[in-house]
Amino acid sequence: MSSIKPALQEAVLRARAAVNSAVDRRWDNDPFGDRPHATREEYLQLFEAARRNRSDKIAEIEERVGYAVESDWLDELALHTQIVKKKSELCYDHGRLPYSLLRERIRTLDAGVVSVIETGTARGFSAICMSRAIQDSGVEGRIVSLDVLSHRRRQIWNCIDDLDGPKSRAEILEPWRSLSSRVVFLQSDTSYALPRVSLGRIHFAFLDAQHTRSSVLFEFDVVASQQGPGDSVVFDDVTRSDFPGVVAAVEEIEASRPYRVDYVEVSPRRGYAWATRTS
After folding, report:
1. What stretch of H or E contains 193?
2. Distance between CA atoms of 123 and 149, rounded to whole angstroms?
3. Per-residue pLDDT averaged across 209-233, rounded?
């Protein structure tokens, strides 16, 4: 009889793993297509336009908190992970903001190791920016980043690296290996995996996965359950015209959770917010 319970637990774990694997496999189908989206010259032209698209409002935040990511370094990372062919204007200020806010959080933190959660890894841009913030602060840290896309599977990503053939995210980030080594990249839907990630305490989070009200609130509440006073959550795409669900979720958090919410709008179609726990 004593072996029944362990056997049942093992069966449950196997069933969960099978479900998770099935969910993950549906994304292993070249979501960005099977060939490059642009020529090298087109990607470089997009890059030149994007690098000039820097927000003065983000610069004001950088000046206020006293931390700003090094521009040339950010540009090189963005060239490989943020410059894509799409209809809307390119902007990679969402690397600048979490870098500065995470450094500010680390400065006020009384902990041996800083713990960070990210949802929506994509090509790894913001994860590497936050890893750079940890490195530049001279502390130990760990980042867990979740996405439905595999870290190791080679595919087309709609970026300049596609011109060398399909690559994995790990290969795209190889030039930043010392920073990516601080990140645990998990392939899974956040609704399944996020509640199973336990860091003891989450000092900082960047939420940029699904953009519905319910999914943002779900991710936030999971993170908030592991946060204390002073810990922060940054939200991408807080833009009413394009992502009303994100805006609705952030407004609900501001009204009903023990967090102070700050907003910054860098353009009519690009905004961010961050929530700081007050109690």
Report:
1. helix 190-193
2. 9
3. 97
